[in-house]
Amino acid sequence: MSLNATASGERLHIAFFGLRNVGKSSLVNAVTGQNLSIVSDIKGTTTDPVQKAMELLPIGPVLIIDTPGIDDDGTLGELRVEKTRNILGKTDVAVLVSDANKSLQKEELALIDEFKTKKIPYIITLNKTDLLDTIVNNIENSLLVSAKTGEGIFELKKTLGKIGKKEKNKQLLGDLINTGDMFMLVTPIDESAPKGRLILPQQQTIREILDNNAIAIVSQVNELSNAISSLSQKPKMIITDSQVFGKVAQIVPEDIPLTSFSILFARYKYDLATVVKGAIKLDNLLDNDTILISEGCTHHRQCDDIGTVKIPNWVKKHSGKQLNFEFTSGGEFPKDLSKYSLIIHCGACMLNDREMNTRMTRAIEQGVPFTNYGVAIAQMHGILKRSVTPFNISI
């Protein structure tokens, strides 16, 4: 991804679903104007979800997802259908591709019910209209299209843009910014920092500060004390990388609000109050409890990785218990969470809102406390109350 590319977690996720051989992949190619998916008359050609990040006019930055058929059969077919259903957990807009020559099938009707239950905006596309002599459309929320001739493709893209328009009321911190406010960001540059650039949460935070006509000052931990003392005005807030939360809290005066990038993303992507509540479990762990630590990306792990090394060590030290840890990354996230006593998730800068809320809701429904890196680290360093006070979260 280029430095100026829109992160996948900020893109509108548009997923195409349907039976085998209804022309899903052909329609995806027609909408994108690219040969994104392999097209064949053989049923089941698409065996795994295919994803493509792109700019799609008139919508903007999107992630297009082509999925296997929901009527696939056999042992492998069942696995493919399961993968397709997993895509629902991150779908912002669903496109059900159906054959205009046939009535809606039971699998399609069941999928429509699932869209409604999960409150996923959707459109039904009746494909292969080029094969019809007489065109009659009496199906609610549907469009007539032909991937072969291009009929209805422009209307489909317009409709996707309309129903998929995100109205994001949540912000990282823009709602707290006044023109001219000064924010200080603490961004350690160590062996885990990417060469030549800042990590995504830091980039997004700086951009939101600038977008709101405020001032962003960036410092490393060792220069933080001198940076604060050199300022002619007190920062509105200091935002730090979570892994140095403890050190930074000792440096920053109590009268300056302090939080972390990970806490900002919990507020932005899912529900900060729920994540704060989940962190309290760190004080009540028992011997042999199992904790799931989950990351939304699949970066190369360093020898002192925060997710697999630092956080487990902090948790064991904080609890004084003999604990078990399991780890997932990327799109991996268990359906059955019953064996876990706690889930600690990353800030999820690479996942979209719907996928994070799907994961958090799944945990809560199964009675498993759910927190994230920044909130958990703040709790273990005794600074959680201080770090969420700017957001009116009580503990």
Q: Could you give a quick summary of the protein structure above?
A:
This protein is α/β, with parallel strands linked by helices and 395 residues long. It is 33% helix and 18% strand.
Q: Average pLDDT, to the nearest integer? A: 89
Beta-strand percent range: 15-25%
Structural class from helices and strands? Answer: alpha/beta
Helical percentage: 25-40%
User: Which CATH class of the largest domain applies here?
Assistant: Alpha Beta
Major beta sheet summary: 6 strands, mixed
Q: Which geometry do the CA atoms define?
A: globular
CATH homologous superfamily heading of the largest domain: P-loop containing nucleotide triphosphate hydrolases
- Could you give the order of the helices and strands? EHEEHEHEEHEHEHEHEHHEHEEHEHH
The neighbouring-strand order within the major sheet is 2-3-1-4-5-6
Please report the number of helical segments: 13
Structure explained in plain terms:
This protein has 395 residues and is α/β, with parallel strands linked by helices. It folds into three domains: 8-163, Rossmann fold; 174-264, Rossmann fold (3-Layer(aba) Sandwich), CATH 3.40.50; 269-385, Rossmann fold, CATH 3.40.50.11410. 33% of the residues lie in helices and 18% in strands. The protein has a six-stranded mixed beta sheet with strand order 2-3-1-4-5-6, with helices on both faces. The chain has a four-stranded parallel beta sheet with strand order 8-7-9-10, with helices on both faces. 38% of the residues are buried. The model has no long low-confidence stretch (mean pLDDT 89).
